[in-house]
User: Which sequence fits this backbone?
């Protein structure tokens, strides 16, 4: 009887270990994705601020109105 319980315990621990490893790998992957998304958001914000500064410093361009020609 003790052999059966030892074997069942080993199987349960092995299954738990596999599940725990998958869970930790999933959390690590999600963390990496979050880091990439945060870096992308920071870069987007920085580039947007630079663009707005550049547009504010540049003189307003007069739009060129072109006549449509018939072909």
Assistant:
């Amino acid at each position: 009887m003790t052999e059966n319980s030892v074997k069942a315990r080993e199987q349960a621990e092995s299954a738990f270990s596999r599940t725990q490893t998958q869970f930790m790998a999933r959390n690590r992957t999600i963390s990496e994705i979050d880091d990439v998304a945060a870096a992308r958001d920071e870069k987007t914000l920085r580039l947007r601020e630079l663009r707005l500064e550049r547009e504010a410093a540049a003189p307003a361009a007069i739009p060129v109105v072109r006549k449509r020609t018939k072909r």
Q: What stands out?
A: The radius of gyration is 30 Å. The mean pLDDT is 89. The chain is about 80% helix and 0% strand. Residues 2-57 form the longest helix (56 residues).
